[in-house]
Write a structure and sequence with these properties.
The complex is a heterodimer. Chain A is mostly beta strands. Chain A contains no helices and 11 strands. In chain A, strand 4 and strand 5 form a beta hairpin. Chain A is globular, with a radius of gyration of 13 Å. Chain B is mainly beta. The N and C termini of chain B lie far apart (35 Å). Classes of the chains: A mainly beta, B mainly beta. Chains A and B meet through strand 4 and strand 5 of A and strand 5 and strand 10 of B.
Chain lengths: 111, 115
């Protein structure tokens, strides 16, 4: 069935360093790839998304890249800050009605 | 402010009891969803509704039921048939139920525990 694999499951970086989270999807019909940030006790919030007709998208310190051939997409956070600490989920949709979520990456930014 | 409101924030269930989780949205979105989140796992789809008076089972619908009588409301009932209900439940909505390739807006969840 459809699947999204996300790595790493845990990531610890020093404040100011960059963080990269990678996802791989299985359904070649997927055409929409959102990233969500979930803080403790809260629901996920959309932070950036990319569609299959674009290879890269940037919003201030956050960027997402997409490689449709390899079915890979990645989240890049530069100049990390302690408030970036959270769980990040990638997702893929478009092949069917459902959105398939990755298992999440817990990011720790050490001050 | 527009958004999704889930209540209660914490809920406790006794053996053999049905409990209902509330989800209300004022975003005028057609589609609504219920997800279950367990530690270290992604979001698993329980039920979804593309339009009022219609809903479909997701991947883990057994032991759950829903209704969609109003556009803004999508309550989830966790029945006694759900033997492992302890989890964080998230409700979400999206603009249209016709396509899946659009962002979902989430509530802040209900944490359900067994007494």
């Amino acid at each position: 069935g459809e699947n999204v694999e996300q790595h790493p499951s845990t990531l610890s970086v020093q404040e100011g360093d960059s963080a990269v989270i990678k996802c791989t999807y299985s359904d070649s019909a997927s055409n929409y790839f959102p990233w969500y940030k979930q803080e403790l006790g809260k629901g996920p919030q959309l932070i950036i998304d990319i569609r299959s007709n674009v290879g890269e998208k940037k919003d201030q310190r956050i960027a997402v890249t997409l490689n449709k051939t390899a079915k890979h997409f990645s989240l890049h956070i530069t100049e990390t800050q302690p408030e970036d600490s959270a769980v990040y989920f990638c997702a893929a949709s478009g092949g069917g009605f459902k959105t398939i979520f990755g298992a999440g990456t817990r990011l720790f930014v050490k001050a | 402010d527009g958004g999704i409101t889930q209540s209660p924030k914490y809920l406790f269930r006794k053996e053999g009891q049905n409990v209902t989780l509330s989800c209300e949205q004022n975003l005028n979105h057609d589609a609504m969803y219920w997800y279950r989140q367990d530690p270290g796992q992604g979001l698993r789809l329980i039920y979804y509704s593309q339009i009022v008076n219609d809903f479909q089972k997701g991947d883990i619908a057994e032991g759950y039921s829903v209704s969609r009588e109003k556009k803004e409301s999508f309550p989830l009932t966790v029945t006694s048939a759900q033997k492992n209900p302890t989890a964080f439940y998230l409700c979400a909505s999206s603009i249209t139920g016709q396509r899946s390739n659009q962002p979902q807006h989430f509530g802040d969840g209900t944490r359900l525990s067994i007494l």
